[in-house]
Amino acid sequence: MYTPTHLIFGMAAFGRPDAPKITAAAIAGAAIPDLSLYLLAGTHLLILGTDPQVVFGEMYFSDAWQSVFRIDNSFLVWGMVLALGLALRRAWIVALAGSALLHIGLDFPLHHDDGRAHFWPITNWIFESPVSYWDPAHFGRILTPIEVLVSWGVCAWLSQRYRGSAMRAVIGVFGLLQVPVAYAWVVGVGT
């Protein structure tokens, strides 16, 4: 799924309107599994000027990058963080880990040939789903608009839960981040 969708779903599932620290942890947990990709790709694309085809066609699949993705996308690693949060009775750790696990759980069935080793360190096996959230050869043209519409619906629901103007602005930004995804779907770029 697209990162903004993870932010929206993580906030919806684990955020609490009466607890800003927990909501922030839920948003952070939703972002962390994709953070390494943004840092690695961003460095190459924006600073080093590496061709996007090289970044996403070669570097993304390299052992070096995949070794990083194994850690921040591991059900086992995040499961241990969740267990720690439960043992310590720290709601913010539970929200962080729960949101990351939700992110990984939603990504697992929606990556065809660009998945991650979600069961590291036990195995480096990568599930190759028959469907993809973005790839038109694997139902991306069907899944993308569903993802965007559901995300906007969840944003509307979140706007009812969070009454403060700052949080409504955050929700609005998350909703606006879906616009490029919707645009790409309409013009057929990447979906």
From TrEMBL:
Alphabetical keyword list: Membrane, Transmembrane, Transmembrane helix
Record's keyword annotation contains Transmembrane helix: yes
Membrane spanning stretches: 75-102, 139-159, 166-186
Protein name in the entry: Cobalamin biosynthesis protein CobQ
Organism: Octadecabacter dasysiphoniae
